[in-house]
Amino acid sequence: MERFLENAMYASRWLLAPVYFGLSLALVALALKFFQEIIHVLPNIFSMAESDLILVLLSLVDMTLVGGLLVMVMFSGYENFVSQLDISENKEKLNWLGKMDATSLKNKVAASIVAISSIH
């Protein structure tokens, strides 16, 4: 009975895989919103006030920081809690991949939240 419960708990980590995939869909939505904002501001760029342009640029920086946060949480969370990523040797590998444990992820997320909230 104990072995069954332990195996079931260990296998339940795979329930997180769709959650991390959902974060990749959120990243796509964020990228679409990013480019929508650029397309929206380009025709008006010469008639905009400087303060309005700065606000738009800060919004773009904000979206970029959130996107980076999503990537960090997706990859390191998947590697730490679900399974190691099998990336072929001929593909570019992120140098921090596989080196970020839960504590360093928490610290990076906290630093990202501070950076994002400082923009607002």
User: How far apart are the termini?
Assistant: 52 Å
**What's the pLDDT, averaged over the residues?**
83
Strand content: under 5%
Shape summary: elongated
Uncertain spans: none
Counted by DSSP, the helix tally is 4
Can you tell me the number of structural domains?
1
Structural class: mainly alpha
Oligomer: single chain
Radius of gyration: 19 Å
- Main beta-sheet annotation: none
Fraction of residues in helices?
over 70%
| Number of strand segments | 0
Order of helices and strands: HHHH
Could you give the topology of this structure?
Blueprint: H1 2-11, H2 17-41, H3 50-81, H4 102-119
Helix pairs in contact: 2-3, 3-4
Description:
This protein is mostly helical. It has one domain (2-119). Helix content is 71%, strand content 0%. It contains 4 helices and no strands. Helix 3 (50-81) runs antiparallel to helix 4. The longest helix is centred in the middle third of the chain and has 32 residues, at 50-81. The protein is elongated. The termini are far apart. The mean pLDDT is 83.
Q: Could you give a short description of this structure?
A:
By secondary structure, the chain is mainly alpha-helical. It has one domain (about 1-120). Helix content is about 70%, strand content about 0%.
Question: What keywords describe this structure?
Answer:
120 residues, mainly alpha, cell membrane, UPF0114, UPF0114_bac, membrane
